[in-house]
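Customer escalation, tier 2.

The customer says the design service returned an amino acid string that "doesn't look like it belongs to this structure." They asked us to rerun it and document both sides in this ticket. The original structure tokens are below, unchanged.
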């Protein structure tokens, strides 16, 4: 029997939408990146590990500056009180709404080359949960976070050694609620670029260009065409599987050599 074209089209639609209806009925239908907006700071859906022992688990490497501590607590099932204590924000009014991207500004006056920011949260979450993560020499944790990890998590010798050399005492620093925040590396109102011209974890390629470093000079360091200039240099390094310091150091040297 020959099936007419409009019959075939009707059958295809029934198969497609019927399949969606069945998966929704059995709670198998899922979309990423949106969500209902419920929970502190709105819905966030990080990528998951695709293969191996941790397949299906959320990947800490995908934590972004826009993720709130409430998001982190819900996604990786870490008590909010422990996150607040670890990063020194337990005393603020709404620790669940505090964003990872606000940490760097909160701890901006640490010693040179020491940063506490979104990368620090990635390290803490990975070690706390036992999920895979490549530790970087540029990432530091508050001493309070290190103490929690050592008390609650079975760490390897290498992990303990890393923590012993990548911790910083924040006990004398008072954190206040942030009125503005940085969304995915894009400055919002009230954010000011650093006048020090020091490359940090949230420094974008645009900032380096604005400092006067020619595009060609940056290309000689990264070995390829510039990505979107709003991308942070740290995120570029992570995307390429490189150590942040291997890009930061030569770029900083070129910036320092500029005649301001």
């Amino acid at each position: 029997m020959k099936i007419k074209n409009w019959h075939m089209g009707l059958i295809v639609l029934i198969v497609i939408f019927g399949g969606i209806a069945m998966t929704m009925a059995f709670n198998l239908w899922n979309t990423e990146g949106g969500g209902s907006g419920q929970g502190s700071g709105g819905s966030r859906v990080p990528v998951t590990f695709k293969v191996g022992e941790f397949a299906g688990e959320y990947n800490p490497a995908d934590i972004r500056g826009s993720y709130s501590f409430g998001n982190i607590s819900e996604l990786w099932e870490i008590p909010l009180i422990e996150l607040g204590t670890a990063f020194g924000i337990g005393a603020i009014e709404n620790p669940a709404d505090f964003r990872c991207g606000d940490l760097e500004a909160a701890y901006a006056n640490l010693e040179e080359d020491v940063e506490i920011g979104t990368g620090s949260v990635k390290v803490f979450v990975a070690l706390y949960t036992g999920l895979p993560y490549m530790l970087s020499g540029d990432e530091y944790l508050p001493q309070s976070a290190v103490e929690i990890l050592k008390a609650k998590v079975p760490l390897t010798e290498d992990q303990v050694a890393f923590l012993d050399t990548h911790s910083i005492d924040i006990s004398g620093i008072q954190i206040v609620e942030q009125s503005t925040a940085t969304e995915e590396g894009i400055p919002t109102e009230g954010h000011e670029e650093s006048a020090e011209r020091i490359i940090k974890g949230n420094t974008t390629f645009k900032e380096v260009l604005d400092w006067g470093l020619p595009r060609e000079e940056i290309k000689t360091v990264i070995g390829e065409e510039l990505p979107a200039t709003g991308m942070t240099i740290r995120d570029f390094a992570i995307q390429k599987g490189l150590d942040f310091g291997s890009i930061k150091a030569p770029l900083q040297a070129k910036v320092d050599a500029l005649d301001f």
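Tier 2 assessment: The sequence is consistent with the input. The two ends are 81 Å apart (CA to CA). The CA atoms of residues 171 and 255 lie 33 Å apart. Sent an explanation to the customer and offered a walkthrough call.
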